[in-house]
Write a structure and sequence with these properties.
By secondary structure, the protein is α+β, with helices and mostly antiparallel strands. The protein has one domain: Gcn5-related N-acetyltransferase (GNAT) (Aminopeptidase, 3-Layer(aba) Sandwich), CATH 3.40.630.30. It contains two helices and five strands. Helix 1 (46-60) links the parallel strand 4 (29-36) and strand 5 (64-67). The longest helix is centred in the middle third of the chain and has 15 residues, at 46-60. It is globular. It starts with a strand and ends with a helix.
Length: 80
């Protein structure tokens, strides 16, 4: 996973495509504002792989994830 700090976006490459999550960091929190995968990658687990990497990043930074995005909230709830 690439942390594109300039655009506040986590990114992973899936072939020639990018799956990304817009985020904000604040104190001990990591807000996930939006997660997006290209249409043809939806349902393939690409966004889930990104979320797994985001969870690892948050743990490394000792931050709590605050999901603003519906997909991120649902994914985290399923991991529960």
């Amino acid at each position: 996973m690439r942390d594109n700090e300039a655009t506040q976006r986590f990114e992973i490459g899936e072939g020639d495509d990018i799956v990304f999550a817009d985020y904000r960091r604040s104190a001990d929190r990591l807000y996930i504002d939006h997660v997006e995968a290209p249409m043809h990658l939806r349902g393939t687990g690409a966004a889930g792989r990104l979320m797994e990497a985001i969870v690892a990043q948050a743990k490394a930074e000792a931050r709590t994830i605050v999901p603003i995005c519906g997909y991120a909230a649902a994914w985290l709830k399923r991991q529960g």
